[in-house]
User: Fold L,D-TPase catalytic domain-containing protein from Rubritalea halochordaticola.
Amino acid sequence: MSSELNILVSVAEQTLELRKGNEVLHRYSISTAANGTGFQEGSYCTPTGRFIVSEKFGHEEPIHTTFKGRLPTGIWDPCECCEDDLITSRILWLDGLDEDNANSKARYIYIHGTNHEDKIGTPASCGCVRMRNEDIIELFELVPELTLVIIS
Assistant:
């Protein structure tokens, strides 16, 4: 695992903290799954436990870039209504370290930007951890791959 940096996600508080040891460097509002927590494939639940950032996608892409299969596909226009659950700006792909969450990478559990920034602070995702686009870009630049992530 990488450096002293770690990420702590609180499902109860709908927050993500970037920490160095026990010092909170940044705190962000987030959105976890509308269906709550869980580990089952197809449950649309956010898994809990220990993870690492296994891969990062979106480096130097413009804000609001949309991704499909982790490849950039266009730019989302925030002025246009879009009900789809878009993955935008940056992706931190999580890999579970615990027996219960070991399927997280295969479930495509990410920390990513969203076109539903109005729902940040409430459980509304399909299992991933959603962040505001400016926030995920900032976090993306600060954390290397292999950073420890704890979702509780």
Observations:
- Residues 27 and 38 are 24 Å apart (CA to CA).
- The chain has one domain: 5-151.
